[in-house]
Amino acid sequence: MGDAVKVSFFVREGKLIMDEECYFYLMASMRKMRMNIPLTYTLEFFQSLFQKDIIEGKGILNGIINFQVFRNSDGVTLSKSSISYFYEVDEMDDILSVFQRPLELDIIKEINVNNNLLSNIRVHSPENIYGGIYAQENDLDDVILLNPNKRIARSTSGNLLFLEGNVIKIPKQSEGAYISPLLENFVTFLHKNNLADTQEHEIIAFESQKAEEILMISDEKGIFSVGKIRNKTFENSRFLELVESWKKSF
What is the pTM of this model? Predict the structure, then answer.
């Protein structure tokens, strides 16, 4: 059926971080998909599940838990169906570190992503599959997806931040960007500490070429700097500095 919702949880230095934000995002995503949320799905349930199974059981100190909840086909109607979950963990050095190798992206024009209520949550998306295959076939790391108004929504795996002067522009959720606890935590940190002027914008495709630096934050895969889009190359020093300060705040 492909009827599932995906949310990531984060383990850093043997502890769950941002677990409350991730939990509320999971609940909100399930509500949007009209899923029956079991009464047992409390924050404490997930904290104890991941603590026992992943941190203690598998001895994982740093990683991303990709959690998926799906609707079973056991109800008389979809609205009566029960749900089940599945999760796996990607171990990494530090989920708050920017990956060493900058990414190469391109803008894909032949498909676009919607910008409605369900576009901001991580559900099965044929656009992501198409975009991922297109990227592989063209030796790219990822592609930038536009919405029906030809403005930037997101990449197949995460959200994009564009640094221009002292302003960081981020596509609005109403443009088709993902809701992301990781991104929201980073932006809140920058805002609280007056480290950058972050603004939500409607960003036309061409504006990506005007940015000095671009960062991609993916709840599913981690944090990456973008090194190249078409013939334009980008720096990454200021974003690296900002992410480093954010990391120290934990």
Answer: 0.96
